[in-house]
Amino acid sequence: MARSYCCDVRFKSKLLNFAQNYIFNLESKVLNTFSLNCKGRLKVFEGAALMGILNLTPDSFFDGGNYNNLDLAFEHAVKMLSEGVDIIDVGGASSRPNAAKLGAQEEIDRVAPIIEKLNANFPELIISIDSYQAAVAEEAIRKGASIINDVSGGDLDEHMFALVAKLNCPYVLTHMKGDPSTMQLQPEYDDVLLEIAKDFSAKLLRLDALGVKDILLDPGFGFGKSLDHNYELLANLSYFKHLFHRPILVGLSRKSMLYKALDITPKESLNASTAAHIMALERGAQILRVHDVKAAKEALTIFQLTHRFSKRNLE
Predict the structure, then answer these.
(1) Which residue from 8, 23, 99, 314 puts its CA 20 to 30 A from 127's CA?
(2) Which CATH number belongs to the domain containing residue 247 in this structure?
(3) Could you tell me the residue range of the domain that residue 153 belongs to?
(4) Which of 110, 177, 203, 289 does the annotation list as catalytic?
């Protein structure tokens, strides 16, 4: 009788453990799946996605000047596609600290030709436009982009939110304190997590009132944050996912929070970028904005293989 009871308890324990892990894995799959309506095409992402950076600027902090003609830009985009990129983020104006604002027409002249060429050659490719100017974003969408990635969260162009609603396109809502010319001049917060959450809450209410549906949140690493602020954000990234239930995008690749902490250069910061990407994924990031697609794809693959077995203990 005692043996039978013991076996029964063990069986029930294993059954309960199995059920809990089944629910955990089901919830994980649901939480890590998101979709974007890109020009009437519903794109479903199961797990994290990679957004490859295509800078057409002469002065970006890492790759400025490398791809500032059409042939070089197209060649790099094709390379990123061969390495497994999901989205290509095209930018024509630098948002690095102390960067001066570029005129809208000059920015359009930089980004429009490559967006048009990519759209013609890869019609299924998801292209985002990295701009905080509504006029630039509108022309980019007309040329074939599907997503607006606004590093200012609507603060630097009062027409941006209305444009997003009119175009009915996915929008990356980023937190930035100040603007690129002032954001790194001793940024201060009483509570960096709370202040960013309040900013997101207020803007999500405005966007919701306009009928905007597809919104991704980017806490804005390096955009008006000190080194400590950035690491506090990274350590607590899951806070925003659980609070807002929106896909989280992170831009950590080769940023100063990595290379300054290690006293190295941006070109030497690939290992640090990979480590930061893994930490972001562990905390719920669903889109990684990266310079190095191949390295990020390999890191993401290993993370996903490992994550398949997390919380699974049936003994």
Answers:
(1) 99
(2) 3.20.20.20
(3) 48-94+111-307
(4) 289
